[in-house]
Amino acid sequence: MNDMSQPPKTDAVPVSDFYEITQTLAPDELATLKAVRTFMETKVAPVINQYWADDAFPFDLLPAFRELGIGGLGLEGYGCRGGSQQLFGLVAMMLARTDASMATFFGVHDGLAMGSIYLDGSEEQKQTWLPPMARMEKIGCFGLTEPLVGSGTGGGLTTTARRDGDSWILNGQKKWIGNAPWCDVSIIWARDEADNQVKGFIVENKTTPGFSVEKIEHKIALKVVQNGLITLQDCRIPEANRLQSANSFRDTAKVLKMTRYGVGWMSTGCQMGAFEHALAYTKERKQFGKPIAAFQMIQDLLARMLANVTACQTMMLRVSQLDDEGKLGDHHASLAKAFCTARMRETVSWAREVCGANGIVVDYNVARFFADAEALYSYEGTFQMQNLIVGKAITGLSAFV
């Protein structure tokens, strides 16, 4: 069997970065991106297939991950890395180029958990929680989705919060929560029984009585990510741990807008990885006396893959620029997420196709991207829900029921 365990190497930019969008970064930010790329290619790529096959997270890689110094990327102050949203997006893309699970792990911690505290927390909460999370000494997760509530989280959470003196009592369940089985802190969103509005809470996983997590087994996508079913049974959370600026789902949505287009970047990276491995395979695989890359139909599929990748890269670059300019709307993020994840599905399917039977064997890498794409396509809001958000923006009419 050919050794396809490591991604193809290039001197300057990845072969999948056809228009060299990575080179648009300022020199210091480009250095950060190159460090991330080197880490992913040299530390993660050689071992990630086995972790994926074993449904295991590579905890042994966390010390080197921390040394990258990218905790709090895109967030200013409080010990965070800061930087442009363009850098944040390109880092997500570069992580996913090697492995979408590692990109998801970081996105949940940095974007969803830290982002919730950054956008909705009090000054004291930011000072308390963000520095250790930026150093990745404490890892976070984000508990919004429930066993019976997915797309309807904005209006129908069943997890409840009841005020009791200087505390809140939380009851309910959260499902599909990435990092939950092992992380330190959870951002839990619950419906306030008093006013029916969504509130956010910082819950310390390992010291809160009534808090438990069951790992979700037998997944076929993002197998490296440890997803959990969180159960909250009369969990007493101090008022000091309620996100002080989260008073309705509108405040939750501020976090989701930021992370939703991050999935667009991840899906772009997932396509890049699948394309690069497929390209390398077609150059090595020979039929009828020559590499299959020399055949017209293979080149047609390779060109289609690259076109999808490049379209997504350039779209996401502009979306990040809009965010840096303070002009990003929910509809911008939704269109990006919907378009890029749909193109990703095409790209990974074609990558699997050109690899033939070897395309379903994890050792050749493409199968991992092919499977992981299905999770990216659905999480952070389905394709159809994103289109309804865009549809409302362009027509002025809501089709939500």
How would you describe this protein?
The protein folds into 3 domains: 21-134, Acyl-CoA dehydrogenase/oxidase, N-terminal domain (Butyryl-Coa Dehydrogenase, subunit A, domain 1, Orthogonal Bundle), CATH 1.10.540; 140-248, Beta Barrel (Butyryl-CoA Dehydrogenase, subunit A, domain 2); 250-394, Up-down Bundle (Butyryl-CoA Dehydrogenase, subunit A, domain 3), CATH 1.20.140.10. 48% of the residues lie in helices and 14% in strands. It contains 11 helices and 9 strands. The chain has helices spanning 27-44, 48-53, 62-67, 85-98, 100-120, 123-134, 249-284, 296-324, 330-354, 366-378, 383-395, and strands spanning 140-143, 160-164, 167-178, 185-192, 198-204, 211-215, 227-238, 286-287, 290-291. Strands 1, 2, 3, 4, 5, 6 and 7 form a 7-stranded mixed β-sheet that branches. Helix 7 runs antiparallel to helix 10. The longest helix has 36 residues, at 249-284. The protein is globular, with a radius of gyration of 21 Å. The model is unreliable at 1-5 (pLDDT under 50).
Features:
Butyryl-CoA Dehydrogenase, subunit A, domain 2, 401 residues, disordered N terminus, two-stranded antiparallel sheet, alpha+beta, Butyryl-Coa Dehydrogenase, subunit A, domain 1, Butyryl-CoA Dehydrogenase, subunit A, domain 3
